Write the structure tokens for this entry.
Amino acid sequence: MDARLNPFAPGAGTPPPELAGRDEIMERAAIALDRIRSGRAARSLVLYGLRGVGKTVLLNRIRLDAEARGVASVRIEAPEERSLPALLAPALRTALIRLRRLDAAKEGLTRAMKALAGFVGALKLKYGDMELGLDVDAEHGLADSGDLDTDLSDLIAAVGEAAAERGTAVVLFADELQYVPEDQLASLIMALHSANQAQLPITMVAAGLPQLLGAMGRAKSYAERLFEFVLIDRLDESAARTALCLPALREGVEFSDDAVAVVCEQSGGYPYFLQEWGKQSWNVAAASPISGDDARRATEEVLADLDASFFRLRFDRLTPAEKTYMRAMAELGPGPHRSGDVADRLGRKVTAVAPVRNALISKGMIYSPAHGDTAFTVPLFDGFMRRIMPTT
Ligand SMILES: Nc1ncnc2c1ncn2[C@@H]1O[C@H](COP(=O)(O)OP(=O)(O)O)[C@@H](O)[C@H]1O
Ligand SMILES: [Mg+2]
């Protein structure tokens, strides 16, 4: 069918033609943010899940909705190897500039700007990756001690006060939060916690890989009182059907039941894969309705495509030892697997392969769903590993 009209949108963070199955979570987020904005008690959300389940697009959607309701949002994305202060400082500056636009400068805002200046000045040396020019002078004793815990608490409180002064909330939308080192994550949670206790309208909505859950818990035990942890998972059958059929239907194209069954089974209902299968099924089909055979032919193309790009990209970041470890996991199936079983397959001791396993965790390739277990963070990765490394 006409590829020009193909509605499907595979890609990291690419908004889908239909955001299926997430209404309830969006509603929960909206309620929490509106309550926080009006100084009422609520827990904000932390979205966690595997690669390609739709955390980023959901986070962005929650942010756009919140903005439409007048919340001042700040988007940060944690890359590997970047300090939290270096990420936060420019983002908070943007938020303050936005608040300033709401009306003429008020006292709280000026103070928040000064807190930011103090924060940057005091921590610049410690975190060498901070570059931010500010046109205000710091206020002595405000967020300028050089200790991240104290300074971040001061800064977050000052920004929260500026938001309260304007009758709004400042919300940090943080993606890939699992990459923030645990000590810095602890400082952030602590700062948000004390702002929360002071009923200041500032909070964070975060997203990250499953390891974020453990990291936040370890970083600060009261993270659970501050945040509701929401697992973002594959779509159930009816949502997967909607994600696939509705965008096509808007173009006057139908999927046969057989085609839907093939796509759901092959993609496992994972949003990213649904987009890939939807796109290829559309392209190989000669006419509507898209048949089961079309979907089966599309499967070959999708896998070839994924093997050459989505999976391959991740594979290429691995050292030979890491590849061997992942291959041993793949031999055992999709997982999760006992770490002991993986080590056994390698003919090594668990302790001997622990450094490789840890390196894979910090690269975001695998995680530990429960103590002693190991699982892939990318769905269908086991099949890929067996295709790219046919023998162990
Ligand atoms: N609820 C959904 N329904 C349909 N497609 C979705 C949904 N959520 C995400 N997608 C699609 O899945 C892909 C991956 O989304 P993304 O947000 O980047 O995932 P993650 O951040 O979890 O890795 C994108 O192509 C997006 O369009
Ligand atoms: Mg993402």
